[in-house]
Design brief:
Elements (H helix, E strand, L loop, with lengths): L1 H8 L6 E10 L11 E2 L1 E14 L4 E6 L4 E6 L14 H12 L7 E7 L9 H14 L6 H16 L6 H8 L4 E6 L4 E6 L5 E10 L3 H20 L13 H7 L5 H26 L2 H18 L5 H11 L4 E6 L5 E8 L4 H16 L5 E3 L7 E2 L13
Parallel strand pairs: 4-6
Antiparallel strand pairs: 1-3, 1-13, 2-7, 3-6, 4-5, 7-8, 9-11, 9-12, 10-11
Helix pairs in contact: 2-3, 2-4, 3-4, 3-5, 4-5, 6-8, 8-9, 10-11
The chain binds alpha-D-galactopyranose.
Length: 390
């Protein structure tokens, strides 16, 4: 990366590199902004940002993937407005850093990412967190404050009212572990997964235009559900507080769609706990069953799946060695995650690719998920992957 940086900016004097991973969520979907539970894993797919001071007052960002260079006077960053462009994420982060009292020094940045964009593996959070670290350039910031700052960048600048999961796991990921996050207390515990299974993400290669607006709609429907439930249970502050029994007792008073949205969130929250317990007992069959229940709930009650995701899940479930499969992330495209036996991975990849190609004339990317460490500075430049062709 040093050679590439030098080629681009003329000098790599004082260059440092920061990394932030993407994620795959095993279970607990659309529960984070309802202050419930999620169980993501940080991936070895990550965004790497090389940075060095610039002498001319500019902040420059170069994306290898886009092959695009953008620059601003570092002093003007606070006044920029969203452009519906990939730079909204880093600029949004710069503005939140300024707001938090961290001046942004002029610098040249080179962005390299192995997280496929639009794949539902959280390329935006990886970009936000790696940008924050690069712009901080070693100035300390509490890890939770870092995750929350990046979430605010997404709210205030990219204008997506996302939960905390993606930024949190990018900061707090751990090798060989999933991380159970309590999205109300913002605490977490590491969950060691049974040894004889692997998780594989399969990318539909589509991202339907609906994704952003439908996400906002779901957030609003959950708020409507809380308001309705409060009529009978005033102590309820979020769907996190609602038991399945409570929900059933008020469901008939809610608009039908709102009741279904709430049912997804309430049952999904329960599934996260059951999944973690099943994992501790090594009950692989139950883990798989919970993944499938999660998918069906997202498909029918929450309605954030799409035909491509359903096709991948149904295809996976018919393959030998598979325990369970579901969509992962926000939905409307992106990836599925499938839990299977390690020896079945190769055949699984081949069969999935063949079936998807036949149905959609597209080859899906297939990633074996390796639970990896959270964000930080990269000391050993040899550990940085080579540039990915755009
Ligand atoms: C997106 C959001 C997350 C979360 C998931 C759905 O990835 O960024 O906060 O809500 O969707 O679980």
């Amino acid at each position: 990366m040093k050679t590439d940086f030098r080629k681009l900016y003329g000098s790599a004097e004082g260059m440092r590199v920061f990394r932030a991973p993407g994620r795959v969520n095993l279970i607990g979907e659309h529960t984070d902004y309802n202050l419930g539970f999620v169980l993501p894993v940080a991936l070895d797919l990550a965004t790497y940002i090389a940075t060095a001071p610039s002498a001319d007052g500019k902040l420059r960002l170069y994306s290898e993937f886009r092959q695009e260079l953008r620059e601003w006077n570092a002093a003007d960053l606070g006044a920029l407005t969203p452009q519906r462009h990939w730079t909204d994420y880093p600029v949004g982060v710069a503005q939140e850093l300024l707001r938090a009292g961290f001046p942004i020094a002029p610098a040249n940045l080179l962005i390299r990412s192995t997280v496929p964009e639009g794949s539902g593996l959280s390329s935006s959070a990886a970009l936000e967190v790696s940008t924050a670290l690069a712009l901080l350039a070693g100035r300390p910031l509490d890890p939770l404050a870092l995750a929350r700052l990046c979430q605010r960048a997404e709210h205030n600048f990219a204008r997506i009212p996302c939960g905390i999961m993606d930024q949190y796991i990018s900061v707090f990921g751990r090798e060989h572990s999933a991380v159970e996050i309590d999205c109300r207390s913002l605490g977490h515990r590491f969950v060691e997964l049974p040894p004889d299974i692997v998780f594989v993400a399969v990318n539909t290669m589509v991202k339907h235009a609906l994704a952003g607006s439908a996400y906002k709609e779901r957030v609003a429907e959950c708020a409507a559900a809380v308001a309705g439930i409060q009529q009978k249970f005033p102590e309820v502050a979020s769907l996190r507080d609602v038991s399945p029994e409570q929900l059933e007792s008020v469901a008939h008073t809610l608009p039908e769609v709102v009741a279904r949205r709430a049912r997804h969130v309430v049952t999904e929250d329960a599934r996260v706990g059951q999944y973690v317990e099943a994992s501790a007992r090594g009950d692989l069959a139950l883990m798989g069953k919970l993944l499938v229940e999660s998918h069906r709930s997202l498909q029918h009650d929450y309605e954030v799946s799409c035909p491509e995701l359903d096709f991948l899940v149904d295809t996976a479930l018919a393959i030998d060695g598979v325990f369970g499969s579901r969509m992962t992330g926000g939905g409307f495209g992106g990836c599925t995650v499938t839990m299977l036996r390690p020896h079945a991975v190769e055949r699984f990849g081949e069969e999935m690719a063949r079936a998807y190609q036949r149905q959609y004339q597209t080859s899906p990317q297939v990633y074996v998920c390796r639970p990896s460490a959270g964000a930080g500075e990269v000391g050993d430049f040899a550990a940085i992957p080579a540039a990915i062709a755009p």
